[in-house]
Amino acid sequence: MHKTIDAYLKKALPAAAVLATLLALCLVLCRAGIAETPDKGDHTGTFCQKDPEAGFENDGNNYCAPTSIVNGLFYLATARGMKDLLPGTDHDSLVAAIKEMAEEMDTDPDIGTNPSKIIIGLGSYLGTRGYSLSKMEVAGWRRLDSEHKKYLVSEKPEMNWIQNSINNPDTIVIFNNGWYRDGDDGGYIRKGGHFTIAVGAGSDGEFHVHNPALEPSEQKTETTVNLSPLGSDVVADARSNGVEELHLGGYYRMEGPGLPHTKEKAAFAALDFVLAFKVNK
């Protein structure tokens, strides 16, 4: 009997040792994989659209879209190995990249950037750097040219889609909010908007953004934005964007230190539009 047990142990122990070694190796590889996935908040650019040394038209007041996009490309260039996306990562190189992006997107220094022109301009810019869009998805009510409606995944940005897009380390997510002011008839009027880049998704509607209207140091600390559903009775005049009566039920109110809007004299900010894209060589 003892000989049978001894023989079994001699066979079983080596097998157990091999299994333990394999499990340990898997654990090491898993930890290595986690370590290799960079945090978007730490690696996304924080260039300020109002940088006084940049020389952007109209002091950069409406350069939020090209600045947010380039801050996203900074992340891809420095953390995802796509170095050729930018001419460099120093101050002057980023200024040059933002100016080029603004030109490709036909950014109006007095009005801002049209969503369809963002798609066109981004694709054109990437082409000059030897890259292309491997994915483009958009959600929101803002008007798109007929050729870009194929990218629309939903007319109302959905929470799970936003979270999953942000949590994908290779996807850049851009938020476009509208500023809504009190109207004379009791409703609201959309008066302008703003683009930020989303760098993190928490729970219960909490997100983190880099807001290009803030100074670089503030972009690293004042990041939190909370999304909460707007009621079905919230209606706004958005005729400046081609929609006379905009029903905001099902959209999200945006508020938090990452998106201060008191200086905009807005009653609230709403998440009007979201772009999520990937890049490949």
Architecture overview:
The chain has 281 residues and is α+β, with helices and mostly antiparallel strands. It has one domain (39-280): Alpha-Beta Complex (Cathepsin B, Chain A), CATH 3.90.70. Helices cover 35% and strands 26% of the residues. It is built from 7 helices and 10 strands. It has helices spanning 2-36, 40-43, 64-79, 91-104, 115-128, 159-167, 216-221, and strands spanning 132-140, 152-154, 172-182, 188-201, 206-210, 224-229, 235-238, 243-247, 252-255, 268-280. A 6-stranded antiparallel β-barrel has the order 3-4-5-6-9-10. Strand 4 and strand 5 (206-210) form a beta hairpin. Helix 3 (64-79) packs across helix 4 (91-104) and helix 4 packs across helix 5. The longest helix has 35 residues, at 2-36. It starts with a helix and ends with a strand. Mean pLDDT is 89; it is low at 1-5 and 18-35.
Give a quick account of the main beta sheet: strands, pairing sense, barrel closure.
6 strands, antiparallel, barrel
- The number of E-state strands comes to 10
The whole-number mean of residue pLDDT values reads: 89
CATH class: Alpha Beta
CATH fold assignment:
Cathepsin B, Chain A
Q: Note the total helix count.
A: 7
Q: What's the number of structural domains?
A: 1
Separation of termini? 66 Å
Percent in strands: 25-35%
Radius of gyration: 24 Å
The structure class reads alpha+beta
Gross CATH architecture: Alpha-Beta Complex
Order of helices and strands: HHHHHEEHEEEHEEEEE
Give the strand order, joined by hyphens, for the main sheet.
Answer: 3-4-5-6-9-10
Q: Which regions have little confidence, pLDDT < 50, spanning 5+ residues?
A: 1-5, 18-35
Helix content: 25-40%
Task: Give the overall shape.
Answer: globular
